[in-house]
Sequence to fold (352 residues):
Amino acid sequence: MYCVIMAGGSGTRFWPYSRHKRPKQLLKIVGETSMLQMTVDRLKKINTVQDVFIVTRQDLVDVIKAEVTGIKPENIIIEPSGKNTAPCIGLSALRIAKLQKNAVMGIFPADHLIVGHKRFAKAITSAKYIATKRNTLVTIGLKPTFPSTGYGYIQYDPKSDVDHLDAYSVKVFAEKPHLSLAKKFIKSGDFLWNSGMFIWTVDTFLKNTKKHMPDLFHQLEQIDKLLIAGKDFKKVWEKIKPESIDYGIMEKAKDVHLIKAKFEWSDLGSWNTVYDYMHKNDEGNAIKGDGIVLKGKNNFIQSDNRLTAIVGLDNIVVVNTDDATLVIPKDQVENVKDLVNYIKKQNRKKLL
Fold:
C-alpha cells in the first residue's frame, strides 16, 4: 500500500501559533515532533506500507525537505494551488498509478492525533484487505465519545460485518451537525465520526471519479498526458473546481465500506482539543511554555518565548508569540478563523 499524506492546509484555527508559512502540520502541537512527522512515522511502522508520499503547496516544500525525515525528495507531490481534497487525491492517484498496476492507496490528513498504534495498524490493514477484496471505497470511522459539532458523521449498517473485521457497509455520510442532531446521532448507536482517512485501489478511485466527478476525471486525464510528456500542467489545474472528496465522491457512491476502528483519535481542530490532551494541574490549568495562573481554573497557556500570566480568570485560552497574542474564552475558540479573516481584510500579511 502507498500512503499519501495531505499537508497543504493553513491551520488558521491555531493562529497566531500557526501561520501560512508554518501551518499547524509543521508545528509541535502535542509532542516533541511536528504533526506531519508524527504522521509519517506512524505510517512507516505499518508492515503493509510500501512507501509514503506527501502532497503539499510549493511554498512548503523546502521546509518539509529540511525538517521532515523518512521521506524521499521525489515523494513530495506539489499542488500548483489548493483545490480541496478531491483534486489533491486525484493528482496523487496519477503518481501512484505509475508505480504499480492497480495499487492500493491510503489517504491521511497530516495533522491528526492518534493514540494506540497497534489498533491503528490493524484498522488500516483491514481496510486494505476490504478495498482489494471488494474493489470498494473504504473509510475509517471512530466511535463518538461526545456529541461533536466539529466532525462529520457516517451512518453504517451494524448487520453487515464483512469477514468479522469490523468492516461495515456505509448508509450515509452526514455533514457537521448542530448539537441536537449530534446528540441524536450518538443515541442511535449506528453513527461514527468521519476521520477523513480513506483506502482504495487506484482503479476503484478513478472509476468513481469518472462516474461522480466527470469534469475532474477528464482534467486528470489531461494532466496525466502532460506529466508523461514532461510538460507543465498548471493551466489545466487552474481550471479545476475545488471540491472535497466527501461531497464529490463519498456522499454519492453506492458501494462504500468503513472500518469501525478502536484507536483514540482527534483532528486537533482547535485550541480546546489541544487543551483536552495536555497535562493539567489540580485547578485544570494547562501550560505549554512559560506561564503562570493564579486564582484561575481550566485555562490554557501557549507561550514559548516569554512569561504569560493569568490572574483571576477561568476558561481562557492565551497564545503568545513574538509578534501577536491571542486571548479568547474557551467557548469562543471556533471564532479564531473569523479573526484571521478580519486580519486578512486589514491586509496585515506579516501576521498571517
Observations:
- The chain has two domains: 2-266, 281-351.
- The chain has a mean pLDDT of 96.
- Residues 117-134 form the longest helix (18 residues).
